[in-house]
């Protein structure tokens, strides 16, 4: 977690220059852990994002819009009641604490000017947003949970989280800092010392800045300490200036550094805010993508498991049907030799000549509780039952094979998904599927996966030697691409007998297939191979034909088509 006290102080310093005096136009709550204030100040519009999500907690200006729920959540309605129309008169944070206080001047129900405060606590799992009056009496909080150290409940007085560390801002000299170090006992690691001793320090901040100054974490001199102390004091004195900027140190973390940077615009006084906005938005999108894909995979895997179980039962019945001709043979042979056993008592078995097999002897088991006539009826009854079952079960198997093939295509689409648009396409498809619709609706209630904002299908495209080529990324896109988007003389590509994307070469000049350059056809075939289940295979056959020869069979699943008049390219 990189949103430490230094980041908080830098963000607040920038916000003071941009949103003091801003009017609150609107309040949104796109998710249960996030509030966005729409502000207007000096001819500019700002969106202030207050996020109490444990993983992405922060406060910053944002350029990204998010869909809002149709029905506003309770805390959002409360903030609209108390803050809309109000003006921000101050924003601050104490020391290097990760609690930000925003003061608003608003008019109450009696049209009297009053002060209201919004406290944003950026503390991982304990993150929260608290609305109070001018006397710090809590009106309400975003999250309601027990806190052993203080009462965060309506009508209670709001108090800051108890602080048990030393304020680095109050240290006046290097000698005072050195004295604190000496009284701390043996110090194995500078990073651990700063984190444990001072307010607002984080591990990434200390480690990265020690590294930038070429100071060892465990082996250091007094000159190294003086150098780092002066560096920190210079950083603190430059809050809100271009000399401080954020540096990404990994895909999951970043930190604040001091020095000259060529990245921020010299006139941009909010570059740290927007760096944080970009960083966390991308992180949220990656997390949402992973979670959505995993949850859809769970649903599809459950459906796949059911279909496999169904296939096992069908195969078991088909195996039983293999005995059908044996029962018929027993019945016919017993009937032909019935005269031999007319006066015989009930038998356990009989041996007769099999005239279907050069009159070789065959032993037929019998039910000794029944006479021979009843055994004949029993065998013919079994034969007729299995004969009827065979036709029904064979049709069931054909349908189950299609269903299995379709679900496997969904698994392939999810495995090749690269962004949320790809996931949303699969989500829409599953929402319309009878097998998965119920499970999807259940997940939707828990806000685990999100619907697309519109039904517009956006196709991925590339340009090859002046020809535009489109690629379907899921079954719904494949259907749209091949059956609705394609012109009759466009060229359609698909890996042969393998799950994969439909690829379409836009043939704007209506050229014949042999008039299109071979390298263009080959590169389109290569795209079909690379976007198929056989992506890593050495040799893949790719079929291609004019789009007018691609049809949808009656009752076929999404993404399933038939085609003719095709040629084949071997992609190595």
Please name the defining characteristics of this protein.
572 residues, alpha+beta, ibrinogen binding protein from staphylococcus aureus fold, Helix Hairpins, 4 domains, 6-stranded antiparallel beta sheet, 5-stranded antiparallel beta sheet, 13 helices, 21 strands, 21% strand
Short summary:
The chain has 572 residues and is an alpha+beta fold. The chain has 13 helices and 21 strands. Mean pLDDT is 89; it is low at 445-454.
Q: What's the layout of helices and strands?
A:
Blueprint: H1 5-18, E1 23-31, E2 34-41, E3 44-51, E4 58-61, H2 74-83, E5 87-93, E6 99-107, E7 113-121, E8 128-133, E9 138-141, H3 174-182, H4 190-197, H5 203-212, H6 222-237, E10 244-248, E11 254-258, H7 271-321, H8 324-336, E12 349-354, E13 360-365, H9 372-416, H10 420-431, H11 437-445, E14 460-464, E15 467-471, H12 475-485, E16 491-495, E17 503-505, H13 518-530, E18 540-546, E19 550-551, E20 562-563, E21 567-571
Antiparallel strand pairs: 1-2, 2-3, 3-4, 5-6, 6-7, 7-8, 8-9, 10-11, 12-13, 14-15, 15-17, 16-17, 16-18, 18-21, 19-20
Overview of this protein structure:
- With 572 residues, the protein is of the alpha+beta class.
- It has four domains: 5-163, ibrinogen binding protein from staphylococcus aureus domain (ibrinogen binding protein from staphylococcus aureus fold), CATH 2.30.310; 168-255; 288-456, Helix Hairpins (Orthogonal Bundle), CATH 1.10.287; 460-571, no CATH class.
- It has 13 helices and 21 strands.
- It has helices at 5-18, 74-83, 174-182, 190-197, 203-212, 222-237, 271-321, 324-336, 372-416, 420-431, 437-445, 475-485, 518-530; strands at 23-31, 34-41, 44-51, 58-61, 87-93, 99-107, 113-121, 128-133, 138-141, 244-248, 254-258, 349-354, 360-365, 460-464, 467-471, 491-495, 503-505, 540-546, 550-551, 562-563, 567-571.
- Strand 7 and strand 8 (128-133) form a beta hairpin.
- Helix 7 crosses helix 10.
- The longest helix is centred in the middle third of the chain and has 51 residues, at 271-321.
- 30% of the residues are buried.
